[in-house]
Amino acid sequence: MSQYFPIVSMMVTLLLLAFLLSSKFASHLRDIPNDRSLHANPVPRIGGIGLWVGVLLGWALGPVELEWWLVLPLLLLFCISLLDDIRGLSVQLRLSAQIVAAALLVIGSGLYAQHGIVIALLTILLTMWMTNLYNFMDGSDGLAGGMTIIGFGIYGIAAMTARNEAFGLLNMAICASATSFLYFNFPRARLFMGDAGSIPLGFMAAAMGLWGWQHGSWEAWFPLLVFSPFIVDASVTLINRTFRGEKVTEAHRDHYYQRAIRMGWSHFRVALIEYALMLGGGISALAASGTGNVFLVFFAWACIYAALMYPLDAAWKRHERSRNV
To answer: Scanning 121, 237, 300, 311, which has the fewest C-beta atoms within 10 Å of its C-beta?
Structure first.
């Protein structure tokens, strides 16, 4: 029965979030709308608490031996992010915690010893970027929760296909807890994930991607394609803001999913489109594993993203012109 611990994660998250929503704690930890928000009313940002308590309890009850370099950085980021949700922390402190977490991952996993300083530094930067972009993309009902289900579900399927069942179940526990979170977050958000949910999830997307590659469950490119909807949107947005001379560290509403909603698309419609992209990327990553077609798959997805972004850019320019008339 111990192999069914993802069900424990799902049930703990479901029950804990239901309890927190009915408690006074939810009213004290709310996301207050501002000029960068896509919602109009205060919403409790307690989802990350239920999600990670469920995941960690499920992991603890399972038969899988956990690595310290996975759990310790996760706990560090969860605690720092929860404090940030409650009282607000400086950017310097949050970035310092992310650097420490990424360094622990790279050193503890043996990546530095195996591949040297250049690969280690590159992985630290990529891990920090993944950690933050997950937070950037957590701004619309159902978006981050649904993408978590699909992304870590694909990780789990790939690991089990590679006969690494224990590792696959760790990913499925995250997928299961995210399913319970999504029940309260979509189609109408009764709660948000908060930084305590999205920051550790971004880290885990990178950490599980690295672990799976090191243990032969997939190639190094696999996580990039699985989470490509998040990576492409956040990266292209950052590049565009840099070219426009805007501060890349400043909060904004310039992501493609945010612009689509600001132009009148519903949260529901945006989420379904993003789910389709994530599912398509994940399935194509599974299909391309072990073949020589990786370049063609990435080229095809580059064309798909370009075909989606170009008309959105044009529509946004028309939208801005109409507002300024």
So the answer is: 311
